[in-house]
Amino acid sequence: MLPHPMGEAVSIAGAFHECSLGLHKIDRSQLDSTAIEWLKKLDKLMDYSGLNDSTDKGLWQVKAETLTVDQKSELSHIIDELAHWFDG
Question: N or C: lower Cβ tally within 10 Å for the chain?
Fold first, then answer.
């Protein structure tokens, strides 16, 4: 997902969007506990509650700009693990 010509936050916001599209119809009750935990962590990382988009960038980009290096690493790891889990 990285790098993006318009910056890292734009790339992460794009990943948030793609994850949202890919996962919104998933019945989590049909997943195993490992996948459910990854999705809970992903939900937490994507949560933009309480953020304000005063510049019209989009709330996911605003959220992406708030992530720490550790959170970005965790996000990348979770997305990779989920991709492998769904592929298997």
Answer: C
Instruction: Report residue 36 as tokens.
Output: 């459910």
The pLDDT-based confidence of 1 (bands split at 50, 70, 90) is: low
Q: Is the separation of the CB atoms in 39 and 31 below 8 Å?
A: yes
Average pLDDT on 6-15 reads 91
CB 78 within 8 A of CB 35: no
* Count of alpha carbons within 13 angstroms of residue 76, beta-carbon side: 12
Rg (CA), the chain: 13
Is the pTM here over 0.70, yes or no?
yes
How is residue 49 written in tokens?
Answer: 């509650």
Averaged pLDDT for residues 49-74: 96
| SS3 assignment, position 16 | helix
